[in-house]
């Protein structure tokens, strides 16, 4: 990253909030809950040039929905003007557990 940043720290946080909001529109087709509330997104990084990386996992390693969710993430992030390039990085550590879900997701799925 260059000395002179295109965005201030506050602007980057605002962009990350927009990215988070966009990702909340990505619904897991099997569970009917968005990937943020399911706790599938571990990290979002945004660089000055608009490159955005989403580190996420899936509920199971053999989940057949990886491509579907990746496509939905790309579509959702196209709505964020500052995002110019998107990389979805699937990671398996730490492994996803029900504990990563938000209270909302647990209530919606009837999990205590």
UniProtKB/TrEMBL annotation:
Pfam families reported in the protein's UniProt record: FeS_assembly_P
Superkingdom, taxonomy of origin: Bacteria
Coiled-coil regions, chain positions: none
Domain (MIP18 family-like): residue spans on this chain: 16-88
Gene3D superfamilies referenced in this protein's UniProt entry, alphabetically: Fe-S cluster assembly (FSCA)
InterPro entries assigned: Fe-S_Maturation_MIP18, FSCA_dom_sf, MIP18-like
Name of the featured protein: Metal-sulfur cluster assembly factor
Organism (species): Lactococcus muris
């Amino acid at each position: 990253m260059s000395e002179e940043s295109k965005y201030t720290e506050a602007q980057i946080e605002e962009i990350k909030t927009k990215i988070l909001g966009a990702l909340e529109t990505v619904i897991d087709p099997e569970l009917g809950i968005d990937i943020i509330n399911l706790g599938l997104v571990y990290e979002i990084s945004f660089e000055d040039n608009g490159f955005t990386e989403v580190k996420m996992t899936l509920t199971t390693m053999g989940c057949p929905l990886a491509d579907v969710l990746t496509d939905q993430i790309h579509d959702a992030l196209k709505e964020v003007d500052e995002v110019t390039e998107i990389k979805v990085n699937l990671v398996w550590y730490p492994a996803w557990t029900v504990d990563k879900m938000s209270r909302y997701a647990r209530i919606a799925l009837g999990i205590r």
